[in-house]
Amino acid sequence: MNEVFLFKKCLCCGNPSGIFQICKKCENDFLVPYDFAVAHCAVCGKKLISENDICCECRENAVIQNLDSVYPLFSYKLWKKDLLFNWKMLGKRYYAFYFAAKIFSVYDKKFKGLPIVPVPPRPLKIYRKGWDQIRDLVNVLKIFYKIPVVPLLIRTEKNEQKKKNRSERLNGNTAYRFNQKLLNKKQFCSPKEVVLIDDILTTGVTVENCCEVLKKNGVEKVHAITVFIAD
């Protein structure tokens, strides 16, 4: 953690910045989480340019069918990719605090009071790596923002989604199942409406699979907030 105290340069402009490597000007200009002032696709949540209501990709081949809404915060492009790389690949776990604050700004406006459901990691990931970025993220949301967290999902698939091509992701079987252990606990009542939390929306398969599992097990409405969208 000594690097926290070292001089940092903004990933966007190169000017001096704080520990998250984003200066205030670039943050205000380029990292407004889910700009409600502009139009977004009603299916995948990406910003619309000339389309109305639904983007062209979702009109032609929508992967997301069952989610009630999805809010991706940032586009996964250019220097913004380095934010996720620093957090997820370089193990700069303090980025969880930065992204949690951005998620909360949307959650508090749209879903205040609803429980969040983390997209779970692959089996043995925490054992091998020592940590999981989504677990860190939801822990910050739970402890510092007092958001209820309900681990309704369990990951069953061992292979990483990022190592699959688009066709493999779209045609693969669901990698998630419902956490039946929760149902055996006294006084546990499955929530009727939840918010999924994940780091990036790529094809939409992950959030769609999670949504299908949740709705088959009594959840009536499922929303999602992702930090990035690969658009």
Describe the protein in words:
The protein is an alpha/beta fold and 231 residues long. Helices cover 34% and strands 16% of the residues. It is built from nine helices and eight strands. A hairpin with a 6-residue loop joins strand 1 and strand 2. The chain is globular, with a radius of gyration of 18 Å. 30% of the residues are buried.
Secondary structure layout:
Elements: E1 8-9, E2 16-17, H1 24-30, H2 56-61, E3 69-75, H3 80-89, H4 95-110, E4 116-118, H5 125-129, H6 133-145, E5 153-155, H7 166-171, E6 176-178, H8 180-183, E7 193-201, H9 205-216, E8 221-229
Parallel strand pairs: 3-8, 4-7, 7-8
Antiparallel strand pairs: 1-2, 5-6
Helix pairs in contact: 4-6
Tally of contiguous helical segments:
9
Distance between the termini: 33 Å
What's the order of the H and E elements?
A: EEHHEHHEHHEHEHEHE
Oligomeric status: single chain
The main pleated sheet reads as:
4 strands, parallel
Strand order of the largest sheet: 3-8-7-4
Silhouette: globular
The mean pLDDT is: 89
Notable characteristics:
231 residues; 4-stranded parallel β-sheet; 9 helices; 16% strand
Task: Quickly describe the structure.
By secondary structure, the protein is of the alpha/beta class.
